[in-house]
From TrEMBL:
GO molecular function: DNA binding; DNA-binding transcription factor activity
Gene3D superfamilies: Winged helix-like DNA-binding domain superfamily/Winged helix DNA-binding domain
Alphabetical list of SUPFAM superfamilies matching this protein: Winged helix' DNA-binding domain (SSF46785)
SMART domains: HTH_MARR
One of the protein's GO biological processes: response to stress
Highest taxon in the source lineage: Bacteria
Keywords: DNA-binding
Identification of the protein by name: DNA-binding transcriptional regulator, MarR family
Length: 167
């Protein structure tokens, strides 16, 4: 019996490649804008935004890493850079030396507030304004189930960060 290579039809292939290229190109465009306008990367923006949304603007390092879908080494490097710039601070856990909490500083909050308008303008220009309300609704309907499938424990995003900060 001959092995059959799985195939996609033309529509499946176009849909898949559109999703792949969007996921490749969009972060680079967002990163370039944030770096040029605010001197922060898109990942740093996500870290600051996630902390902003957390209860008390602080999260344990492991919860922050999960919420921004980062490895601990990557998050540690970025938090170190943000701490050097005074945008976050590392605080010890309540009596447990193994626990490190990351807290958004006033300077970090200020930097985030300054970065948001241009960031939102680019997001609207590249994505939101290109789609009708019906298409936006369809996009939500298509992507939210994919996110749920890829993250069944709901460990990424603002909701996960808020849950972790309440625990």
């Amino acid at each position: 019996m001959a092995y059959q290579v799985p195939r996609m039809d033309e529509l499946e292939s176009r849909a898949w490649l559109a999703l792949v290229w969007t996921s490749e190109l969009l972060p680079a465009a967002l990163d370039a804008q944030l770096q040029a306008d605010s001197g922060i990367t898109h990942f740093e923006f996500m870290v600051l935004s996630t902390l902003q949304q957390a209860n008390g603007a602080a999260l344990r390092t492991k919860d922050l890493a999960a919420a921004v879908n980062a490895t601990m080494p990557r998050l540690s490097r970025v938090v170190g850079k943000l701490a050097e710039r005074g945008l976050v601070e590392r605080l010890g856990g309540d009596g447990d030396a193994r626990v490190v909490n990351v807290h958004l500083t006033t300077a970090g909050r200020r930097e985030l507030v300054r970065a948001v308008p241009a960031h939102i303008a680019l997001v609207k220009q590249l994505v939101i304004d290109r789609l009708s309300p019906t298409e936006l609704t369809a996009l939500v309907g298509v992507l939210e189930p994919l996110v749920e499938r890829l993250d069944p424990q709901n460990r990424v995003g603002f909701a996960a960060a808020q849950r972790a900060s309440s625990a």
